[in-house]
Amino acid sequence: TQLLEQSPQFLSIQEGENLTVYCNSSSVFSSLQWYRQEPGEGPVLLVTVVTGGEVKKLKRLTFQFGDARKDSSLHITAAQPGDTGLYLCAGRYGQNFVFGPGTRLSVLP
Amino acid sequence: NAGVTQTPKFQVLKTGQSMTLQCAQDMNHEYMSWYRQDPGMGLRLIHYSVGAGITDQGEVPNGYNVSRSTTEDFPLRLLSAAPSQTSVYFCASSSRVNEQFFGPGTRLTVL
After folding, report:
1. Residue A94: what pLDDT?
2. Do B50 and A45 lie within an 8 Å CB cutoff?
């Protein structure tokens, strides 16, 4: 059974601070996705990383896939209140995905 | 395009009752799936379908049935509801597995 762990579970920071959240597994995934979910809504895809060592940037968000394709990180620069939400990582195995439990981020103005 | 739609948004059932959660997509996606989301556990795959007439079990299929008679619709049936099925249910669709689009969810409470 593939398992994904995410840390920290909760994170509360002030507007303007930087942060990094992590997604780790003992399994190798063919690709990994990051989603953001807001209360009462479904997850929304932010990025997919496929190649070990790959780095992708989406405005103030930087995503990295580990060289061994077992872990990933999400770095947010100068966080804003609009970044508040639940951040989920999901690793692909076969034609399906396994999700981590998420990091709940709160950015205070 | 409406994307992925789910009905109802909220539902309360008594133990032993049955019901169907509806999911529809208008993007002509072949792949559709159902997840449940519980606090601290992320999303867990219940059932999935790679096309009309084809369904398969995910990680937590017990107590649930699905069918896929059309590309657009993928209903999830609870045969005899149990309190352990209290959860938020999400339907997702994708043209390729790397681009999942999620519906807004159904919040189900089983008393």
Report:
1. 79
2. no
Q: B82 pLDDT exceeds 90?
A: yes
Cβ density class A30-57: b for 16+ within 10 Å, e for less: ebbbbbbbeeeebbebbbbbeeeebeee
Question: Residue A2 pLDDT > 70, yes or no?
Answer: no
Question: Is residue A108 packed enough to be buried (19+ CB in 10 Å), middle (13-18) or exposed (0-12)?
Answer: exposed
Distance of alpha carbon B48 from its chain centroid, rounded? 9
Is A103 in the B-facing interface, judged by CB distances under 8 Å? no
Is A48 at the interface with chain B, CB within 8 A?
A: yes
Give the count of beta carbons closer than 10 Å to the beta carbon of residue B75: 16
Q: Average pLDDT in the A35-54 region?
A: 93
pLDDT in tens, B86-99: 999 999 998 865 67
Of A1, A31, A40, the CB nearest to B98: A31
